[in-house]
Amino acid sequence: MTGTPTIGVLALQGDVREHLRALADAGAQARPVRRPEELAEISGLVIPGGESTTMSKLAVVFGMLEPLRAFVRAGKPVYGTCAGMIMVADKLLDGRADQETLGGIDMIVRRNAFGRQNESFEAAIDVAGVPGGPVEGVFIRAPWVESVGGGVEVLATYDGHTVAVRQRNVLATSFHPELTGDHRVHALFVDMVRASGPGQGAAPAE
To answer: Angle at CA 61, nearest 5°, toward 58 and 65?
Structure first.
């Protein structure tokens, strides 16, 4: 795929506008996605930060949970930030007993691992695959990755904890790059979408 890919931002809850702006600046055509049928119109999807339990419940209410899981299983590129990282994890720690995830990355994620809202912070993060030096990571009630499976690439760590990962078509960060003026992580995802190509990267049927 070349040119300007169409990338959706899951618009059930969270910082949707900031991601739309960052994706546009990174060379994509960005649009909000709220209904299952809109998934057919995009080549990649961003799952924003917000509150992961609320996002999970809304995905069920709006009939999006299974279509989103199918989107991931089909090999479509997906990028989750903060709560989005939780949504693409195969397993959670400190989540609600009924909390649903989409899966996609063989990892265990701990919710709110870096502390509460008033313990939010920023830090310079070196991210593999992002040229030009560290990016500014904004951590707000952020998770971290407790452990990963053998197929997961660790892209960044902070204070001994994994904060950015990739497995095949799925990218995730603990922090919020959309809240800064630096959109290099979004550019990395846009490149992933371009590289996926039409019909490429599909997972085998289960």
So the answer is: 75
